[in-house]
Structure formats: C-alpha cells, structure tokens
Write a structure and sequence with these properties.
It contains six helices and 19 strands. It is an alpha/beta fold. Helix content is 16%, strand content 23%. The protein has two domains: 16-186, Rossmann fold; 204-325, Beta-grasp domain (Ubiquitin-like (UB roll), Roll). A hairpin with a 5-residue loop joins strand 4 (97-98) and strand 5.
C-alpha cells in the first residue's frame, strides 16, 4: 500500500513475543488478499491431486480459504483442551459455533475424521519465514498435530508476512510450501520442488510399487500410465476406460479417498469394493504404495490400447466406501 510504513522486523531472532507483535502490526496494514491466495491454492491443489484438504476457519487478518469448499472436500478443526491441548478434525460444514478465538468451530460432539485421510493441510499463522517455519499464536496446537501428518503442508499468509528468518524450536515442523497472493512456492528447506503460479504445476513424486521398487511419477498423472512408464507391465485390456478390472492394484499406503463413478460401478459389479482399485481411474499423489494385482507377465496377456493422458470416461468424483471411517 502506497504511503504505508511497515514496522521493521525484530533484531532479536529468539524473541517470539516481539515477532508476534511485529506480525500483528504488519497484518493491520495489509489489505485482504484472500481472493488472490485462493486462486493460487486452487491451481496448486489440483496439480498435486488433492481431494481432502485440512483447512481452517479464518480469524481476522488471515487469508480466508472458504471459497475452496465445494471444489475440494474441506475439513476444519476444533481446539480441545483436555486432557491435553490438541486439534480434532471435522467436516467443514459442521463448524456452527464460535470458538474462544473468534472463528467458527464444530460443536463438541461433532464426528471426528482421521488425519491420515488428509491429502494437504493448509496452515494459518501470524507469519512464516522462507524456510516454512511457522509463527503461531502460542497455543501449540499445530505443533502437536503436524508430527503425525505425512501429507503435503502449505503455509497460508500474505506476502508481507513472510520473513527471512523466524525463531525455530526443535519441535517445529516447517511447511513444505507457502501460499501467498503471489503464488505457491517451495520453502527453502533444502529439498528442490517446483513452483506453481498461474499454470498447471508439474511435481515429481515417488510411488512405491511392490516387486518393482520406487518409480517416479508426476503428481496428478494417471496411475496406470505412471506404472507403465516406470517399467511395471501392468495389464489394461480396455484402454483405461473402466470397462474391465485388469489394471487393478491394491494399496499399502496412500489410498486416495476419491473414487470415480465408473470405478465404483465396475468394482461393485465384480464384487471388488474394498479389495482392489482400478489404476486407470486414479491420479498419482504423494505417499502412494501399491501392489499390481495383474501384470502381462503374470497372466500371459498383452495390454490393450494405450490409455489416454486424462482419466476416461469424464470423471464424476465421490468418496470411496469406508474412506470417512478409516484411521
């Protein structure tokens, strides 16, 4: 904002109270950037194949991500204080009562959802630094939650609240990405990651395949194609359009909660719900570990025509049976 002089960052790196005062002063001068941040997050979340996203009900001054609801399955949190401070996860629409912090939260008896079902966690804060270190409000709720989270973490803030360096405690879990009004960028944590701005981002991930080891895939790539390109002779007789079950796999880790209508119908027809997934109907995402259940070698059959790059038929997404109760 022209004509606005923002306070200088504290000189004492270890003084969290001073940093919180600085962040609040800066926040008071920063315009609402929610629309621009959400636009960047929308591209990023689609690029990494996110379906279930842990979000937050925004406090004053925080970018409001509520506009993502409906495009992704958003979860929200409730702060619990007994027997120890912690966050529990709940459906987004269950937040109907005000919390002591001023944002809406689910009521005490709202059904809880498992952290293991979340693909991406969006993290609020007073500020972040370029390494992804988060300056919270002092309650320690996310410090207790994040060590058990294996998915993608994204710090969400205004660009003016990204510092060069913030105090960091041994228990801190830095965010892997930062989302601001300028885009979604990888944090400087020593690991190379691509950058997502206006277009579709390509992120290389690792998929564990039993009997074949690790293969490299693009986040959002059709799993059947990633397996083939990684040297796995996965069988697919129908061209990847869910008219058969020859491309089926089982998941050891990272099974997506989303399922296409075509996959559901075919697995139901073959009585395979809960036993297998169709790799032609799945987009690759971080943390996947799979076992191919039919290969050209094991069956003596030749694959059919090559599947298209995008999922066919046009996907109609729903939540797979049992996904909401796992964990």
């Amino acid at each position: 904002m022209t004509g606005v002089t923002r306070p200088d960052p504290p000189t004492d790196l270890s003084d969290k109270a001073a940093w919180r005062a600085w962040a609040r002063a800066v926040r008071a001068e920063v315009p609402d950037v929610s629309g621009a941040v959400v636009a960047c997050l929308r591209v990023f979340l689609r690029s990494v194949g996110a379906r279930r996203v842990l979000a937050y009900r925004a406090l004053p001054g925080e970018p409001d991500v509520a506009a993502l609801h409906g495009e992704f399955e958003l979860l929200t949190t409730r702060a619990r204080f007994r027997p120890a401070p912690r966050l529990t996860l709940h459906a987004w629409e269950s937040a109907t009562e005000p919390s002591r912090f001023g944002a809406l939260q689910p009521p005490p008896g709202a059904p809880e959802l498992p952290l293991s079902s979340v693909d991406v966690a969006l993290l609020p804060a007073l500020a972040f630094d370029v390494r992804g270190v988060r300056l919270g409000y002092g309650g320690g709720f996310y410090d207790r939650l994040l060590p058990d989270f294996a998915g993608v973490t994204v710090g969400v803030t205004a660009r003016a609240l990204v510092a060069a360096r913030l105090p960091r405690d041994p228990h801190d879990c830095p965010a892997a990405w930062l989302a601001t009004e300028d885009g979604v960028t990888a944090t400087l944590s020593g690991e190379e990651r691509p950058v997502c701005h206006a277009g579709r981002m390509t992120q290389t991930i690792t998929v564990q395949v039993e009997g074949f080891g690790e293969i490299q895939a693009r986040s959002g790539e059709r799993l059947v194609l990633a397996l083939e390109r990684g040297g796995v002779d996965i069988l697919h007789r129908c061209g990847g359009v869910a008219r058969c079950t020859t491309c089926r796999v089982s998941f050891q880790e990272g099974e997506p909660s989303a399922m296409t209508a075509a996959e559901f119908d075919k697995l139901t027809e073959k009585n395979l719900i809960g036993q297998a997934r169709l790799s032609c109907q799945i987009e690759c995402a971080p943390g996947m570990s799979v076992t191919p259940l039919q290969t050209a070698r094991s069956t003596g059959l030749e694959p059919g025509k090559a599947p298209a790059e995008e999922i066919e038929p046009e996907p109609v997404w729903s939540t797979r049976p049992g996904a909401s109760t796992e964990g």
